[in-house]
Design goal:
Length: 423
């Protein structure tokens, strides 16, 4: 891979998309625009080698990253993903989107993100534990409960966070529960955290549909990605009497105009590892999914899934970004021109980081809230932030994404300005 310049990204990469989003919002920043380059330069990016002994005795090396994009408003916050396609440019963008997301919902964090280039499906549980612990030890120089707090992301989970917490604690010589969030409840994790991102997607979709005069009852929904986010969003949509007509994941695509039984599909996925083979819906090809007749589409898989041709085919009136950066630059413009409302990721999928914030607060105080309290606090913050963004969009006559960035960038750059430069 050639040497990376932060200001000369690979065309079409997630980092390129992020930089374009910052350029688009700059005219709305007023006097704070003098600080806008702050948003284009990550504070620090750490690349680490992760050697582990495999079960067969071989020594394998993996490449890991931890990027802290901006810490002006508080410690870094963002997940760690394990995926064979992880790159530094991807992690740069994801960390920057965390800066925007945390500011958009006004919680006191900066943005960070981590990842390891690995296919976790090819590793045993023992090898995954070794990988996680060595990665944690390598990035331990920049993480901590007041510095940078990792969390689960793609292909990581509460067990991953338990290994990270234990490794960091061992290095510190005492239990440090607040170094990560998304932990098991037994180790200081928060009730409601596992379902929080999917719940937040559902809440913002419900609110956006309401403002569009679209009742959820009977609305046709298509969900791409059926992991922790997509499956829970689909489940809550079905409980609200929406009709989930299509689902896609890594194993295939399904459609049923009469509605897919989501609880039954969730059980199938738990047993089979994917939606393929589910007999209560018709298997369709990957591209047909994007043209399915629906009112609401929720891309909740990986970034860059909605490109120009797919954006032309989407029939939904409302698209809610459950994943980070699922719509690329070309597609975003096409959806705008076609009159399709896009609820951006920085507000739509912020439920996970909001409840991670609750977990962090609970760990510091050693006082824990009920799941009902968690869900009520989440709804208050998420919907309050969405309404603020919607009002700003109307005031400026801009899309929701631009409005979210205006609010978030102003908060970050105001913090940068009042903190000043040292030395």
């Amino acid at each position: 891979m050639p040497a990376l310049s932060y200001l000369n990204p690979t065309p079409g990469s997630p980092w390129d998309t992020y930089l374009a989003q910052v350029d688009q919002v700059t005219p709305h920043l007023g006097k704070l625009a003098r600080w806008v380059e702050t948003l284009k330069h990550p504070k620090r990016a750490l690349i680490v080698d992760i050697p582990i002994e495999m079960d067969n005795g071989d020594v394998a090396h993996f490449e890991g990253y931890r990027v802290q994009h901006n810490l002006s408003r508080g410690p870094g916050k963002g997940g760690v993903r394990y995926h064979p396609a992880v790159t530094l440019e991807e992690v740069l963008a994801l960390s920057a989107w965390m800066t925007i997301k945390n500011a958009a919902v006004n919680i006191p964090y900066g943005g960070a993100k981590g990842g390891i280039r690995v296919d976790p499906k090819l590793l045993s549980l023992n090898e995954l534990e070794k990988l996680t612990r060595r990665y944690t030890s390598e990035i331990s120089i920049i993480i901590g409960p007041t510095k940078d707090i990792p969390a689960p992301d793609v292909n990581t989970n509460p067990q991953t966070m338990a290994w990270m917490m234990d490794t960091f604690s061992a290095l510190q010589g005492g239990t440090v529960t607040g170094v990560v969030t998304g932990k098991p409840v037994e180790l200081g994790g928060s009730l409601g955290r596992v379902r929080a991102t999917g719940r937040g997607v559902y809440l913002t979709a419900r609110e956006a549909a309401k403002t569009m005069g679209m009742p959820l009852e009977g609305a046709k929904v298509a969900v791409q990605g059926f992991g922790n986010v997509g499956s829970i969003a689909a489940e809550l949509m079905a409980q609200a009497h929406a009709v989930v007509v299509a689902v896609q994941d890594h194993s295939g695509s399904l459609a049923n105009p009469a509605g897919i039984n989501i609880p039954t599909l969730i059980q199938h996925v738990r047993s089979c590892g994917g939606i393929a083979g589910f007999t209560e819906a018709e298997a369709i090809d990957e591209e047909s999914f994007w043209g399915v007749d629906c009112d609401i589409m929720i891309p909740a898989a990986l970034e860059g899934q909605v490109d120009g041709p797919r954006a032309q085919r989407i029939k939904a009136r409302l698209l809610v970004e459950g994943a980070n950066g699922p719509v690329n630059r070309e597609a975003d413009q096409i959806l705008l021109e076609r009159g399709i409302t896009v609820v951006p990721d920085v507000i739509a999928n912020a439920g996970g980081v909001v409840v991670s914030y609750f977990e962090w607060v609970q760990d510091f105080s050693s006082f824990f809230w009920s799941e009902d309290e968690i869900n009520l606090r989440l709804e208050s913050i998420q919907l309050g932030a969405f309404r603020d963004i919607q009002q700003r969009a109307l005031a400026l006559s801009v899309p929701l994404r631009t409005a979210a960035y205006v609010i978030a960038c102003q908060r970050v750059l105001q913090a940068r300005e009042v903190r000043g430069l040292y030395p």
